[in-house]
Specification:
single chain; alpha/beta; 12 helices; 20% strand; globular; disordered N terminus
């Protein structure tokens, strides 16, 4: 009898041990992170022109994303700027991008394809409108540009949008009253230096490296924008409400400003995706954008201005659910 009971006990103990091992294995699997839970796969990030802030920011952000999301393969694609960026993302030709709030509002107001699918991930830094002329130029205000060769930005850029609005508000027809040159920050500094331009518009973070370098090669100055002109811009469309009065700090371009601030207007940049993007990918992407702002800001100074407290305000776009998850996780 005892040997029989002994065999039964051993068999029972073995069954219990096996069940415990299975349960332990399931618990370890449930508690441990798996590769399947991590964002993975290719994504396309549409940036901007070479030498522009968007492009330089994109390169550094890609490096940060490689560290934080090693299963994600990020491809950068240069673009003409905000307007082209939005079209790419809305039409599924890119997954993430940066665009100015005024360009986003216009894209939505115009009812362009895919506009209703656009979503915000983060409010980033502000772009400042910069009208650059050679030092000693007779151009003291935008109205003085009549009859001159002016770089107004490429067709798909946010620069073109804001330049056309400012010129029109000043009573200058961009098509008739100036010689509009559709060139961007990758070429306008050299054109001004060679005397092929009398002035150029740029809208970007401070300082923009291409203008900073130009100021060290030749004497330049920045034309102030009058507050009444900006008020006139505000009156032209509901999408212009995203512009605000601003002053470029005296040390933005020390050689060009002579220790003086320059009145201008500014507009926020937004990190943009669509409702098609996986929430886990958006959450991870947004986390890296916020966490890397100090490291990236050492090279691209505007990135230092990304603020967790205001980043979730992506008006005029609704916040993507993945970004919402990130901001909720960061609440104290």
């Amino acid at each position: 009898m005892f040997p029989s009971l002994s065999r039964f006990g051993r068999r029972r103990a073995l069954q219990v041990s096996t069940a415990l091992l299975v349960l332990l294995g399931l618990l370890v699997w449930w508690l441990s992170p798996t590769d399947d839970a991590q964002p993975r796969g290719p994504i396309i990030f549409s940036t901007g022109l070479p030498n522009g802030v968007y492009q330089r920011y994109g390169v550094l952000l890609r490096d940060a994303l490689h560290r934080d999301l090693p299963q994600v393969d990020i491809e950068l694609r240069n673009s003409e700027g905000s307007q082209e960026n939005l079209a790419r993302v809305a039409m599924g030709e890119a997954d993430f991008t940066i665009a100015t709030a005024d360009a986003v509002a216009k894209y939505r107001e115009d009812g362009k394809p895919g506009a209703d699918r656009l979503r915000g991930c983060a409010r980033l830094y502000d772009d400042y409108v910069q009208l650059v002329v050679p030092r000693g130029s007779p151009v003291k205000k935008i109205g003085d540009l009549r009859g001159r060769a002016v770089g107004v930005g490429q067709l798909g850029s946010g620069v073109r949008l804001v330049a056309d609005r400012l010129l029109t508000a000043a009573g200058v027809d961009p098509a008739e009253d100036i010689r509009s040159v559709p060139a961007g920050i990758d070429t306008v500094p050299e054109l001004l230096e060679r005397g092929e331009l009398d002035a150029f518009f740029w809208s970007g973070g401070l300082p923009t490296a291409a203008i900073e370098k130009l100021s060290k090669r030749i004497p330049i100055q920045l034309v102030p924008l009058e507050s009444d002109l900006i008020e006139e811009v505000h009156s032209t469309s509901s999408t212009t409400s995203y512009y605000r009065l601003a002053v470029m700090p005296p040390d933005a371009y020390a050689e060009a400003q002579g220790g003086r601030g320059v009145p201008t207007m500014a507009v926020a940049n937004l990190l943009v995706t669509t409702d098609r993007m996986d929430p886990a990918m958006v959450e991870g992407f947004t986390r890296t954008v916020i966490d890397s702002r100090g490291r990236i800001g050492d090279t691209v100074h505007p990135a230092q201005l990304v603020d967790l407290r205001t980043a979730l305000y992506t008006d005029p776009l609704p916040l993507h659910e993945g970004a919402r998850r990130y901001y909720r996780s960061e609440k104290p």
